[in-house]
Amino acid sequence: MEHPTVHVCEDCRNAIVNDDYTGLDYYHDREEADERERQIRAGLKRLGWMTPTDNTIEFSLNQCECCKIDGDGKRYEMVLFRMELSSALA
Questions:
Q1: Which residues contact 28 (CB under 8 A, 6 or more apart)?
Q2: What pLDDT, in 10s, does the model give residues 2-38?
Q3: DSSP assignment of 66-82
Q4: Which of 64, 35, 72 is nearest to 47 (CA)?
Q5: Per-residue b/e over 31-63, b at no fewer than 16 CB within 10 Å?
Q6: Which of 56, 90, 59, 54 is nearest to 73 (CA)?
Q7: What phi and psi, each to the nearest 5 degrees, are found at residue 84?
Q8: Distance CA 56, CA 58 (A)
Q9: pTM of the prediction?
Q10: Residue 52: strand pairing partners
């Protein structure tokens, strides 16, 4: 079974891999950091559980597929794992 992949920004990657949002305070004031965290958490809720691969796009103009930010920069590939209810009960 092949799993779908998404490409995420560095902020989302840190949240996915380490459950770490502290770096947001470095680049943003408290209000902006809180908003970024809400965007990231909403994306994680929408996408579900995922894990990183070794694939990185060094420079991308594409939107982050998690938080939907439009900034350019690195994108990190993540593999999505969605378990169907019927297979979970089998």
A1: 36
A2: 789 999 999 999 999 999 999 999 988 999 999 999 9
A3: TT-----EEEEEEEE--
A4: 64
A5: eebeebbebbeebbeebeebeeeeeeeeeeeee
A6: 59
A7: -70, 145
A8: 6
A9: 0.85
A10: 78
